[in-house]
Amino acid sequence: MSAFRIGDSELSMHAKIGSGLHRKGLVFTYEYDFGSTTTLTGHVLGTRKGRFGRAAVRLLARNDGPAWRCEECSQPATTVCPFCIHDGSYLFCEAHARKHPCAEEEVYLPVVNSPRMGVCGYVG
Question: Which of 9, 33, 71, 116 has the fewest CB atoms lying closer than 10 Å?
């Protein structure tokens, strides 16, 4: 289950995405996996008119991954503690992951370029 929203309006499940996201500068939200919902915010950078040729590609998007940093030393983070994700301190480099209080549990997840990082055992 998922939903696209533009302001207070939700796009119909049967609507083509281009009918809602049709104007440069438009801001929208996308929620998916209701239950352990992930909410994304996006904005339309531009539009394109004309034929794509093959029918396989209809949406062009870009996801530049953030530079996640260790909560302790600011080195690149490699580990997510899913037990602590809602407490605000959950990203660690390898060295600080070994010292973290949850280190004895085998629950750590990898840092990945996904909004699902640390949610429901997602490993990319």
Answer: 9
